[in-house]
From TrEMBL:
Protein name: UDP-3-O-acyl-N-acetylglucosamine deacetylase
MF-aspect GO terms: metal ion binding; UDP-3-O-acyl-N-acetylglucosamine deacetylase activity
Catalytic activities: a UDP-3-O-[(3R)-3-hydroxyacyl]-N-acetyl-alpha-D-glucosamine + H2O = a UDP-3-O-[(3R)-3-hydroxyacyl]-alpha-D-glucosamine + acetate
Organism: Methylobacterium planeticum
Leading EC class: hydrolase
Pathway connected to this protein: Glycolipid biosynthesis; lipid IV(A) biosynthesis; lipid IV(A) from (3R)-3-hydroxytetradecanoyl-[acyl-carrier-protein] and UDP-N-acetyl-alpha-D-glucosamine: step 2/6
GO cellular component, one term: membrane
Keywords, comma-separated and alphabetical: Hydrolase, Lipid A biosynthesis, Lipid biosynthesis, Lipid metabolism, Metal-binding, Zinc
Amino acid sequence: MTYPFIPPAGPSAPQSVCFRSEGTLAASFEKHGSSLHTGRHANVRLSPAAAGTGVVFQRRLRSGRVVAVPARWQARVSQPLCTALQAPDGTLVRTVEHLLAALSALAIDNALVEIDAEELPIFDGSATPWCEAIRDAGRVDLDVPRTMIKVLRSVEVRDGRRSLRIEPAERLSIAAHLALAHFGEMRWEGVITPESFVRDLAPSRSFGRLKWALPAKLYTYLTRRPVLRGANLSTTAGIVGGRIIGGMRVPEEPVRHRVLDLVGDLSLAGHSILGRVTAAHTGHELNHALVAKLMRDPFAWEIVGATAA
């Protein structure tokens, strides 16, 4: 079955489709744009992939050689302010979290992502452009039952006031809070479905305080580090004092964006996860620490069919 469009949720909207089979894109599509950290232009093409492939990035180097980088937690490497994946030969693909979140939330289990640069486009700092492209392309069922990771016991990671815990549940739900100076406590809680992700999380943008932007840019140029070179008011939500320039797109936008990033980082487990996540001031490093700790504990999870979800 092909799903060309997943409608936004609302009081009269139908219940979320329950995907029993692995899925891929019904058609290929291309996206182009500048990147957040390198500031360079990138061309990306997403194509359908066979069952069992997962999400695989295929980076074309200047030499013409193509390097495959799987979207799996074992390939993740630490990079500033983003999620990055690395092939055994050192080839990087980074700032993948928004695309991975959209693919995961919209139940695209298998896809090939061809890219001619190190970093994916950032667009407006949200996941909405990816969601729109995926929804336009559509989802098609593959002739293989869908499997999921079911959490069997609680796993937790901490770093000072930052904490992240996952515990058994029948669906993926997230309860997150974040406190920023001049904003106070911000919270979001909900079940992650295609509808809730598209409506509540995808519009939220990467954010940062303007008072740190120019010093950070100067530092990265002086040290030749490709960090935040493409950050501007078109690609991020700029914070001044206790407000976001131009206003928030969704209520308490910063905490929602942290949840968006978390959905993308959790997808590196390789399957959709059934569990309840509680997050306090989380970020990429803690997200990846949780995934690694969970996956390295064979007694904390099991693989189940989607019919058991």
